[in-house]
Specification:
By secondary structure, the protein is an alpha+beta fold. The chain has ten helices and eight strands. Strands 1, 2, 3, 4, 5, 6, 7 and 8 form an eight-stranded mixed sheet that branches. Mediates influx of magnesium ions. Alternates between open and closed states. Activated by low cytoplasmic Mg(2+) levels. Inactive when cytoplasmic Mg(2+) levels are high.
């Protein structure tokens, strides 16, 4: 059912041994008053009026509701009385574009409320997968919370693959191109920004999983905690991969800087070598450009050929010596 300031994507009541049924917002309170089951409400960029209505239906804490409505929250897990508020950053590939968003979750004994902001992908597939496991849905709303966390973490694996592909192209340009123009430098900067954003999204998930595993059993049942530990392992794998990409970028930049320095040194050596060769005839010829009154060899018949031969011979000798030394 649409809302002028936001959207209710889905709202369903789950009870053991009974099929899930859709709920209107005004039917949430009566459903929670029953002795069994839980309610899972999904929202996308809700407005203030809708959030106040949801707050009244579930008895959510005012500060948590304000955070969920405002968005732009750092990843965290906060406990308010008998509920948890969880803020997550999300990321996924949309074609060749890397998208970011936020997902906020309210977890109580009888409910799970998800609030998506920005470009966060929908939870329809996760909900459908959960509904195919009624025996685990009987664990309560903590199970779909785990399923959402697992799906959010899994979205990072295609991102890591995309970063690896982009890194391979940048490595080719950094290591095998003679000159690096400004466009490549700008691409490297944007790539490093992407790595930083992905890292900001994935690294805090480890702390979120740790906080959930240490949560009391009234909200997170014991049988679910091994699954959360598995999600934490996936988070560690993604974090290591992202860090590895960032380190390889820095290594490639350092290698490129070394290659540039080597090429500059080679050019400097060649210039110095040719300068040394040209210095020989310059020195010899400059002597005879002086206006001395007494220079006996000027009147010698073979003076000019001898001078040219000496200059040429010294230049040839110096050329081969420098070439053997690797300066030319």
């Amino acid at each position: 059912m649409p809302d002028p300031a936001g959207a209710v994507v889905n709202c369903r009541h789950y009870r053991p041994g009974a099929p899930a049924c859709d709920l209107a917002l005004d039917a949430i309170a009566p459903a929670l008053a029953q002795d069994e089951g839980f309610v899972w409400l999904g929202l996308h960029e809700p407005g203030e009026a809708l959030m106040r209505q949801v707050q009244a239906a579930f008895g959510l804490h005012e500060l948590a509701v304000e955070d969920a409505h405002t968005a732009h929250q750092r990843p965290k897990v906060e406990r308010y009385d008998e509920s948890l508020f969880i803020a997550l950053r999300t990321a996924w590939m949309e074609g060749d574009k890397l998208r970011f968003g936020e997902t906020h979750l309210f977890l109580g004994r009888r409910y799970l409320v998800t609030v998506r902001h920005g470009a966060a992908a929908g939870h329809a597939r996760v909900r459908a997968a959960c509904e195919r496991r009624p025996e685990r849905m009987a664990w309560g709303p903590a199970y779909p919370l785990y399923a959402l966390l697992d799906a959010l973490v899994d979205q990072f694996f295609p991102i890591v693959n995309g970063l690896d592909d982009h890194l391979a192209r940048l490595e080719d340009e950094l290591l095998f191109r003679e000159r690096i123009d400004q466009s490549v430098i700008r691409r490297i900067y944007r790539f490093q920004r992407q790595i930083m954003k992905v890292r900001r999204a994935v690294v805090p998930l480890a702390q979120v999983c740790s906080a959930l595993m240490s949560t009391e059993e009234d909200l997170i049942p014991t049988e679910l905690k091994p699954y959360l530990r598995d999600v934490a392992d996936h988070v560690g794998t993604v974090t290591e991969s992202v860090d590895s990409v960032g380190e390889i970028v820095l290594t490639a930049l350092n290698v490129n800087a070394s290659l540039v320095s080597v090429r500059q040194n080679e050019a400097t050596k060649r210039l110095a070598g040719w300068g040394a060769i040209l210095a020989v005839p310059t020195m010899l010829f400059s002597v005879y450009g002086m206006n001395f009154d007494y220079m006996p060899e000027l009147r010698w018949h073979w003076a000019y050929p001898a001078l040219m031969a000496a200059a040429g011979g010294l230049c040839v000798l110096l050329y081969f010596r420098l070439r053997r030394a690797g300066w030319l």
